[in-house]
Amino acid sequence: MKLQMKLLKLRRTFNEGFTNFRRNGWLSFATVIILSISLYIISFTAILAVATSIILTNIQDKINISVYFKQDVGEERILEIKDKLIGFQEIKSIEYVSKEQALEQFRKFGDNSPSISQALDEIGDNPLLAALVIKAESPDQYDLISKSIAESSYSEEIDKIDFYENKEAIERLNSIMGLIKKIGLALGAIFVFIGILITFNAIRLTMYAQRQEFEIMRLVGASNRYIRAPFIFEGIFYGIFSAVVVMVGLYFTSMFLAPLTEESISGGNLATFYLKNSLIIFGSLIFSGILLGTVSAMIAIRKYLKI
Amino acid sequence: MIRFENVSKIYPGDFMALEGINLKIEKGEFVSIIGHSGSGKSTLLKLIYAEEQPTEGHVYFNDRPIDSIKRRLLPFFRRNIGTVFQDFKLLPQKTAYENVAYALEVCDETKEDIAEQVPEILDIVGLGDKMEKYPHQLSGGEKQKVCLARAFVRRPLVLIADEPTGNLDPSATLEIVELLLKINTMDTTVVLASHNKSIVDKVNKRVVELENGKIIRDSMIGKYNV
């Protein structure tokens, strides 16, 4: 019986909230739009940040150090060195490229230019060197890795380390990444703050318009909880509707930006990234929408329903 | 049933609204409170439905001091009291039916009971055909009838009417007074505040007159002027 009573109350206040939402018409529309704009800005910043970091990780993946060994160093010795190096925690992966593989790659690369393969045939012997291709855990560790290899006991057997050629590019990428992270974080924080302020204000305005009704409801004998519940439901509706609006908005944005980001994210562009993660995005949008709506409603009620 | 014992009310700014009020209202009575604007009529009523608390003395409702009720529990206490005001205080987003139903919904009445009682009460006040209208679609007299229906639908022990005809034309005023008298015959105590001579004369029951926050007359059967 008690549970039934609670369910009845819940259903009534839910309906009440929904009716408020529907009949408020213009005010509800305006609140949803404002909430949508702030959610849109926040989530767009977040998606951009995630996408940027994916793109940067992809670029990072393409950076490596190649350690070329002298002609007279045998395969066994190189593999021995490889085993030694793999123990370092800064090193993510090491790939052995033999002379023959290098030649094959070189021929493939020079497919369109018969003169290169002709020249190679002319030489007869394989002029290329065997190498270890090393990838680091993070780009700022390449310097350290190449230095320690250059100063190691087997440095005599090394012909050259071609990290220095990439050094400038790697360092630039590092500083750009740091900057993007900082800017993204600052912008994100600012927009989250603005979004919360705007939403609070919108819902507080709704409440302000209805403050006299609180008094009437109390006079008619409604308990505070009964008065409060519909407004919280109303806040939840604002959140859900805004989440849907933002979902649609983000879809078109990502479609619009898709050509710019073609192939920069593994397996597609911004649009495919968005679609692939749409469930997670929608979930967090609904969650933050409901959170924003509910918190704003509760603060506003506290102000106008003196308990 | 309602008892004022030595009640004074001082509003912030040292405005003495009521001073040394002693008043007893029995069950089933119809009491008209009269007096000029600012004489303390509204304050007296507010003390009954606990919108204000006395600065001195106590107001008792069925022998229980009202100021001892916790603020959180006031809504439950108010379910014993129906209220009607000059400015109606209807919920603008709700139809006449929903306004009356709301008073029952907050008391956890079932949907079936509500569907039965609301049309019945609206019929009694003569609005059976306007149940789906919103307040802004109703005339002043009709709005006040919705208020009366809302106040009475729970069969409260007391009905408090604060200047209920202040915004109404003479014929609507007459209808409201007749409804108040009808409600009174159904065993509900009615406390009416008004400065309208004709309606107090028409009621022709107990009259309490206030002046500057003090009771200056209490006659069991009275007219506005002696």
Which characteristics define this entry?
heterodimer, A: 307 residues, alpha+beta, Alpha-Beta Plaits, 2 domains, four-stranded antiparallel sheet, 11 helices, 4 strands, elongated, B: 226 residues, alpha/beta, Rossmann fold, six-stranded mixed sheet
Short summary:
With 307 residues, chain A is α+β, with helices and mostly antiparallel strands.
Give a written overview of the molecule.
The complex is a heterodimer of chains A (307) and B (226). Chain A has 307 residues and is α+β, with helices and mostly antiparallel strands. Chain A folds into two domains: 2-59 and 172-304, no CATH class; 64-165, Alpha-Beta Plaits (2-Layer Sandwich), CATH 3.30.70. Helices cover 72% and strands 7% of the residues of chain A. Chain A contains eleven helices and four strands. Chain A has helices at residues 2-23, 26-61, 75-85, 99-109, 114-123, 142-150, 167-209, 211-220, 224-257, 270-276, 278-304; strands spanning 65-69, 91-97, 131-136, 158-161. A four-stranded antiparallel beta sheet of chain A has the order 2-3-1-4. Chain A is elongated, with a radius of gyration of 31 Å. Chain A starts with a helix and ends with a helix. The mean pLDDT of chain A is 76. Chain B has 226 residues and is of the alpha/beta class. Chain B folds into two domains: 2-80 and 156-219, Rossmann fold (3-Layer(aba) Sandwich); 90-139 and 146-153, no CATH class. Chain B is built from seven helices and ten strands. In chain B, a hairpin with a 3-residue loop joins strand 1 (2-11) and strand 2 (15-25). In chain B, helix 3 crosses helix 4 (111-124), helix 3 runs parallel beside helix 5 (140-152) and helix 5 runs parallel beside helix 6. The two termini of chain B are 27 Å apart. The chains are: A alpha+beta (307), B alpha/beta (226).
